[in-house]
Amino acid sequence: MAEFRFVMKQWRRMCDGVRCDECILRNFCDADPCSRHDGELDVIEDTVLQWAAEHPEPVYPTWGEWLTAMGVLYRKNPNYYYRVSTYAQSPIPADIAQKLCLKPKEG
Questions:
Q1: What backbone torsions phi and psi does residue 62 show, to the nearest 5 degrees?
Q2: Counting beta carbons within 10 angstroms of the beta carbon of residue 14, is it exposed (0 to 12), middle (13 to 18) or buried (19 or more)?
């Protein structure tokens, strides 16, 4: 069984990207939760994981790449870069990247 948080994150991403009438899980969303069987939960999980594999999340630049491109972070000053290295190595979250009008990385 996959990590619960990962499955729920992918299910949310799937719901945000697909219209309800086209969703492959619409029968599970409309059903009475009290009448569900344990086998259906496995079907939901497998379906969500299959969709996530077919629709990978976009990868955006790291904070360091973006700040360097903006001219804010200079790699020439190693002391300053070292202090912000934890932020510099982490990718920008998708919602923030969209607000900054950044496009996903290619490849």
A1: -80, 165
A2: middle
Q: What is the pLDDT averaged over residues 65-77?
A: 71
Q: What is the pLDDT of residues 88-103, one digit of tens each?
A: 778 888 888 889 888 8
Supply 30's token pair: 């409309």
> How many Cβ atoms sit within 10 Å of the Cβ of residue 63?
19
Split at pLDDT 50, 70, 90, the class of 41 is: confident
Residue with tokens 């299910």: 11
Long-range CB pairs of 12-18, under 8 A, 24+ apart, other chains included: 13/52, 13/55, 13/57, 14/48, 14/51, 14/52, 14/55, 17/55
Q: What is the pTM of this model?
A: 0.55
